[in-house]
Amino acid sequence: MRTLFIGGLSALIHSVSTNAHTAAYAKGMYCRGGPNGDNQNANDPVVPLYQLSMEDWWFQHDRGCDLAPPPEDEFLELPAGGSFEVELAHNQAFTTLSFDGEFTSEWPDGGDHPEDWHGPGSPPDCIQEDGALHVQNESMAAGTAFAISYHSELSEVTLENLAVFTVRLHTPWKRVTSYDVPAAMPACPLGGCTCAWLWVPDGCGEPNMYMQGFKCNVTGATATSPVAPARPPVYCEDDLSSCVQGAKQMIVWQQAEGDNIEPSQSKSPGYNPKGLE
Ligand SMILES: *[C@@H]1O[C@H](CO)[C@@H](O)[C@H](O)[C@H]1NC(C)=O
Ligand SMILES: *[C@@H]1O[C@H](CO)[C@@H](O)[C@H](O)[C@H]1NC(C)=O
């Protein structure tokens, strides 16, 4: 039994390293266990979004994840003025949501790596063993973010009411990753809010984007002012005064429909000061 299982896992690791990428695993996520909810090795949410119609990329409709909400009353909890944790991984198997966490390590691929993990050469080229991270070393990691919509039903969420509220620079990198929650976030409506995990990698592979759904809820809120409508991001590395102030939309990039940012030359936008904020 045990031997068979390990064989299965090495086949899994192989498929992960060749064709999968990274997603945020946590309570409240859509597509836990895959679209049918029964797969401990699910990597459906990690597949990037590339050149898709808006209907297809929006909350990963292309793979049915938008139709696989978490159990009722399960939310990603966002403590106002505090922080929350998710697990960034290439497969649910490498998180504590599967197999009682038996295959987790400090890293998203369940493997062991040096603290200063980097690709070959100097300056380092892309990390080869784990192309899914799309990166040369920690300092080059493009940044990931969460956005929130004060609507309980996914069908009510729009680009304008989904605002980026937290960014973690130099991620994805290690598995356990935390994001800060602004103290000024108001409480969600009775049925909770809808959130999205977001990432735009910078180089080291196909330019693509990630948008993954969560049911979320702000706890301990004291603020009451609603979040302002989100405005499209602007690529502002060359002119910081052109950066958008206040609530911003997610970055829509490299899709067949809906792109909302035009970086200068061949640069990549991202959830970092250089590419967006
Ligand atoms: C990380 O990699 C980039 C790109 O190769 C390089 O410019 C930078 O110096 C590296 N940083 C460290 C701390 O090694
Ligand atoms: C969201 O959190 C608030 C504050 O803890 C709580 O009162 C409310 O019931 C929660 N909403 C849902 C839908 O669980």
UniProtKB/TrEMBL annotation:
Compartments where located: Secreted
Keywords for the protein's UniProt record, in alphabetical order: Copper, Disulfide bond, Glycoprotein, Metal-binding, Monooxygenase, Oxidoreductase, Secreted, Signal
Region ranges (Disordered): 258-277
GO cellular component, one term: extracellular region
Main location per the UniProt record: secreted
Keyword 4Fe-4S: no
Cofactor: Cu(2+)
Pfam families documented for this protein: LPMO_AA14
Superkingdom in the source lineage: Eukaryota
Signal peptide: 1-18
Family: Belongs to the polysaccharide monooxygenase AA14 family.
Name listed for the protein in its UniProt record: Proteophosphoglycan ppg4
